[in-house]
Write a structure and sequence with these properties.
Rossmann fold; 6-stranded parallel beta sheet; homodimer; 3 domains; 5-stranded parallel beta sheet; alpha/beta; 441 residues
Chain lengths: 441, 441
């Protein structure tokens, strides 16, 4: 892994590091649009067609039956179920604490204005397929939906997902047992064996089998993200933010343990060929030791190919003269994950403006939060931490303003309302206030 | 205005009422894309070109100077300035109350997980042009940005906006005086004389004059909304929700004053030809009286043409047998504004699931909240209250997760992390936990 002084980085290299690997949706949008349109028009028939095209399987009934879920329990060992239950419990505890309160504020005598919260009634979650089953994705999108109180919470998962872990029963494909068991523990109201853009389209427009939802959440590949963008653009649904490749930035001083840092950089880079792992440190000695540890530790890991490729393409060890330089870089980088491994890690929290999730001290590795510390692992990547937030209960709720004025309260602002309304040319607005005092004129 | 029994409404008519007037962005997207691309490539030059094309004026310097603002103060009378100041003060009080707190939760012994809030550093607001100047738009998007603490808060406003109220000084167009004065009172960091899609493009990509922002907020016409959709799709910026024509739904029983209801339906319908105004009531007598009052009161208003057209096309008075029928209709309709004029209006609040802003009782007209009660008037329209929230301070902030585990805290979840990580094929994640306990093995 390359070691470089911050002041020696060329502006071109700096731009490259800041940019990470970024997806180009423009090219795939036309193809995705075709899928969306066809599902809108033809419903299940189109979903069936694109499932055959992309997943290479024929599905009669997209909905996962209760028998399939029961069967899945027989295939998952107790230790894994215990682990899933502990993860769900911690994630639930954290998200429960996020439930916001209603409020009513006295703006002035006789003017009360406030808000209340309501769950979005119908939400659709997407769980990606891939090289393995990803039960943690199901937990991170499903638990906050239940905590928020969304009435209809559906899950779409590719029928052959999980790198061969999908099984065939009575000629029908069933997603990985662990995915179904996790979804059952989390508590979805329905699970569908549909993947990719056709899943997003089905939830956006509804089909004979899949209900239309109001918001779609959860990570996915570029096709899924492109479909979510189109779904949002159509005005039919809200979506959460746009996920990209995972990334980590570590700020460290000479007190940090190079083994921990190396292990965390490596673990981030195994996510895929396009993951970014960057260390920025005030200690040149640490930089060198971390580099050695990485060489040592990346061997004998099955995911070595992804690790080497992403460390090579998007990884870097940067040394600086001061801790403030590290902080300023971190705010520019706006990392999805930011580990702070310095003597008093929380001492610099106030200065961090842009980060998805911050990990303080030696015993808070990202890996813990990916699964079980309770926090949500669906986080803004690619610099989106500048404007987006981690997935939270708030994404499953919406706010309604509430206000009540007394006659005297209305009177106290009536001149203001009438004056501005008149200036804006809204004369009936002015009259709507005047009529309330008509008998007094 | 048509009076109809709820049970007599055909399913086709019901669909039409629910649909309101909806914009078709698809047709204008290609044209807007061209503008966006050109501004991205050529910066100010392209902005200048499209300003000449659409606004028919040549602008040398897009940025409003401090001299222009000073001059504007001379043109606005004291009463209007006092009104704007009262409105700003109330809107500020309401939005101050929305500032969220950070939190740190004990998930378990040795596992602390929480969050902190940070303002989005650079935000861009759009204030629409139109038949008149709209100072209230500037207040509603600008005040929460200042309250949130966003460092850079810029405003774009069409150079010739305000239905002729823009003025020419030394050959340069300047937006309406009241718009500039309001923006100055609200406290933007810079104001630019740019409108339409070219304004959204400039803030999305940045130009020589206009800084790139991270989020774009505020209402606009269909071109502006289409540009915001493209800006979001490009991955460059976040946006607030998609605004559409304004609308009101009133739930009333026989205790309500028909004059107030008529005035509020009329005031909503003057917003434009595509506004929707619906009354749903348990009282047939009230329905008839409201109808009479509307006929009476819509006369002699300068905005009569818009009022008649929108009442005709999207307005309706619906009668029901029970209050529950009204509530269930309201939840289906998911109105931007919902006035409740029944004997005990707050008694049904618990049953309302979908509404942008709720107005309780006879003295809480929408008009008051449009300007001065403190609430934000940028609200979800067209049924978006099912999944979107009113504009609030939260839209200008982002959350960062923070966590700190002790060694024992990490140990307590280490089996769970390792078990799920292994199942997901993330072996380096497992090792990132193991390395923390290496010396113990």
């Amino acid at each position: 892994m390359k070691i470089c002084k911050l002041k020696d980085i060329s502006s071109q290299d700096y731009k490259r590091i800041m940019k990470r690997s970024s997806a180009e949706f423009d090219k795939i949008i036309p193809q995705i649009r075709e899928i969306m349109e066809e599902v809108k028009e033809k419903g299940d028939e189109a979903v069936r067609k694109w499932t055959l095209e992309f997943d290479k399987v024929e599905i009669d009934d997209f909905r996962v039956s209760s028998e399939e879920i029961e069967e899945a329990y027989n295939k998952v060992d107790d230790k894994l179920i215990r682990s899933i239950k502990q993860a769900v419990a911690n994630v639930e505890r954290f998200h429960q604490a996020q439930l916001p309160e209603p409020a009513m504020i006295d703006i002035d005598e006789g003017i009360k204005v406030g808000w209340m919260w309501r769950p979005i009634e119908k939400v659709g979650m997407y769980a990606p397929g891939g090289r393995a089953p990803y039960p943690s994705s199901v937990i991170m999108t499903g638990v906050p939906a239940r905590v928020a109180g969304c009435k209809e919470r559906i899950l779409c998962v590719p029928p052959t997902s999980g790198g061969g872990e999908a099984s065939k029963s009575e000629g029908q494909f069933t997603p990985p047992a662990v995915t179904l068991v996790t979804a059952d523990i989390v508590g979805f109201t329905a699970i569908y064996k549909i993947g990719g853009a056709q899943a997003i389209a089905a939830m956006t427009y509804g089909t004979e089998t899949v209900p239309k939802v109001y918001k779609i959440l959860g990570p996915g590949n570029n096709y899924v993200v492109a479909a979510k963008i189109l779904a949002f653009s159509s005005g039919e649904v809200a979506i959460d933010s746009l996920p990209g490749p995972s990334e980590i930035l570590i700020i460290a001083d000479e007190s940090a343990d190079p083994r921990f840092i190396a292990a965390d950089l490596i673990s981030q880079s195994e996510h895929g060929f396009d993951s970014s792992s960057v260390l920025i440190t005030t200690s040149e000695r640490l930089a060198e030791e971390v580099e050695k540890q990485i060489e040592l530790r990346k061997e004998n890991i099955a995911t070595k190919e992804a690790i080497e490729h992403s460390l090579e393409s998007y990884g870097m060890i940067i040394t600086t003269d001061t801790l403030d330089d590290c902080i300023s870089f971190a705010n520019d980088y706006a990392s999805e994950h930011l580990e702070i491994m310095i003597r008093d890690p929380s001492s610099i929290l106030d200065k961090i403006n842009n980060a998805g999730s911050i990990f303080l001290g030696p015993y808070s590795p990202v890996a813990a939060s990916d699964y079980a510390s309770g926090s949500n692992h669906v986080l803004p990547t690619a610099g989106y931490a500048r404007m987006f937030s981690p997935l939270s209960v708030g994404e499953y709720l919406k706010k309604t303003e509430v206000q009540e004025l007394t006659k005297e309260g209305l009177r106290s602002i009536s001149e203001t309302v009438k004056t501005i309304a008149e200036k804006e040319g809204f004369l009936a607005h002015k009259r709507a206030v005047e009529v309330r005092f008509e008998e007094e004129i």
